[in-house]
Amino acid sequence: MTPRVLISDQLSDAAVAIFKERGVEVDFRPGIDKDELAAIIGDYDGLAIRSATKVTAKLLENATRLKVVGRAGIGVDNVDIPAATARGVIVMNTPFGNSITTAEHAIAMMFALAREIPAADASTQAGKWEKNRFMGVEITGKTLGIIGCGNIGSIVADRAVGLKMRVVAFDPFLSPERALDIGVEKVELDELLARADFITLHTPMTAQTKNILSAENLARTKKGVRIVNCARGGLVDEAALREALLSGHVAGAAFDVFSVEPAKENPLFGLPNVVCTPHLGAATNEAQENVALQVAEQMSDYLVRGAISNAINFPSITAEEAPRLKPFIALAERLGSFAGQLTESGIKEVRITYEGAVSGLKIKALTAAAIAGLLRPLLQDVNVVSAPIVAKERGIAIEETTREAEGDFESLVTLTVVTERQERSVSGTVFHDGKPRIVAIKGIKVDAEFGPSMIYVTNEDKPGFIGRFASLLGDAGVNIATFALGRDAQGGSAIALVEVDGEAPAAVIDRIQGIAGVKQVKPLRF
Ligand SMILES: NC(=O)C1=CN([C@@H]2O[C@H](COP(=O)(O)OP(=O)(O)OC[C@H]3O[C@@H](n4cnc5c(N)ncnc54)[C@H](O)[C@@H]3O)[C@@H](O)[C@H]2O)C=CC1
Ligand SMILES: O=C(O)CCC(=O)C(=O)O
């Protein structure tokens, strides 16, 4: 079925063209009312947004077909990521497309503050010619304090260095080498507050960064500091900043983002030394074209080719990797499903070993597929995106091991599931025909393809079992498609994995269970 995408925010037309080119049906409904969106979201595989659409848990409940939300921009705080993940919806953003533009806005805001350009403009156009009212400050030689020196923060740093500013940065994740590379001095927050003439914020909104410029921290700033926020509303305590502006401790503030948006009123509004823009950081033709193109490419790649890039809640898979990964994802999912269908008590631990060539693939994606396969028979509504979170919530420990060295197979994946009662392992590989196969169960060698309907039997290795088993199926009119056998030792434990056409009736399964020496019989579906 052709994938369908809805664009619910104001994205550049470039996105529509890309979706169409890539064989994705697209509906362009910027500004769609939220109730209407909730009514139609069930018809779409993809939702492309900017910041206006709120992707809530409630909206996602109706999004029964949705596979991907694409944010044409950086911040995904308008998307309920845990809810999307729980429903198996990939959330991707475009982390670089608007960084330069946003950094330029921060620099523009800094100049606007330094020279009071908006107020001087209003006064001049009002015919006042107040030449003596506006006395600015020079930027050259001043210290800029950057809080959050990632993509945007480091572009701001680069531009500020070019403007002959001294730049200090507070970012716990900024390495000393990177700081050196981009020409900034890495400092602690207190030092930045004490030294900066201008402060600009470029962190995401997290529990640690919320109110990072609190009343206490504002009090630690240098008198006459000017503050720019083009990152997220709520990084600065707006009420406390109002007081600091009124007292003259803070000389000016330029804000593009507000704790409540759209900001129709705000504690900062109306103060003479405040410059505000309505979340315009990313609003240039260039940036909007970049993010629209990128989000449409990423979403199409995922919907059409299974490639994943810039996903917040899943490892990236390139278009080149996707075809190599696909058969191993199928293998991992089926090995998981095999173990899940046999699991009857609580899972404590899952160990997955990747040996040979497969160890060089994106094993995070393979593990996610194996866990999804394992949990689906027990929990139904899990997929590769939600499975790792669901496993974590249930306290299931997951251990991955990779070994480059090849054994009997070019690639081997072994899944071991530890439950309250036992440990069960199953191994598989993918042959050159691209088909996943089971090659060992509990360490006993077999060779079986996965069929839609199978019967798994464990028994004592004694003469007569195979004949009785086969004739029981034949007498019941159940046709055997493939038959794979294995045993650990002569007269020891044996297994049979049989593919049958159609489903074996429960009564037949019971009769197989009654054959002498049979320990376990389990019908399996793949
Ligand atoms: N105004 C607008 O229109 C736009 C706003 N933004 C916002 O700008 C912000 C920054 O974006 P990017 O630079 O692309 O993100 P990024 O992820 O590249 O950089 C964020 C930096 O903040 C640092 N950080 C995280 N926690 C911190 C903490 N507790 N203290 C200090 N630093 C911390 C990280 O280590 C990272 O280096 C985001 O919130 C984004 O949503 C982005 C684009 C447009
Ligand atoms: O789409 C926009 O205009 C907002 C951009 C933004 O805030 C972001 O990319 O984080």
Automatic annotation (TrEMBL):
Pathway linked to the protein: Amino-acid biosynthesis; L-serine biosynthesis; L-serine from 3-phospho-D-glycerate: step 1/3
InterPro entries cross-referenced by the UniProt entry: ACT-like_dom_sf, ACT_dom, ASB_dom_sf, D-isomer_2_OHA_DH_cat_dom, D-isomer_DH_CS, D-isomer_DH_CS1, D-isomer_DH_NAD-bd, NAD(P)-bd_dom_sf
Protein keywords: Amino-acid biosynthesis, NAD, Oxidoreductase, Serine biosynthesis
PANTHER family: FORMATE DEHYDROGENASE 1, HYDROXYPYRUVATE REDUCTASE
Signal peptide range: none
GO molecular function: phosphoglycerate dehydrogenase activity
UniProt source species: Alsobacter ponti
EC number, as in UniProt: 1.1.1.95
Ranges of residues in domain ACT: 454-526
Role of this protein: Catalyzes the reversible oxidation of 3-phospho-D-glycerate to 3-phosphonooxypyruvate, the first step of the phosphorylated L-serine biosynthesis pathway. Also catalyzes the reversible oxidation of 2-hydroxyglutarate to 2-oxoglutarate.
Catalytic reaction equation(s): (2R)-3-phosphoglycerate + NAD(+) = 3-phosphooxypyruvate + NADH + H(+); (R)-2-hydroxyglutarate + NAD(+) = 2-oxoglutarate + NADH + H(+)
Annotated protein name in UniProt: D-3-phosphoglycerate dehydrogenase
Upper taxonomic lineage: Bacteria, Pseudomonadati, Pseudomonadota, Alphaproteobacteria, Hyphomicrobiales
CDD domains: ACT_3PGDH-xct, PGDH_4
Family to which the UniProt record says this protein belongs: Belongs to the D-isomer specific 2-hydroxyacid dehydrogenase family.
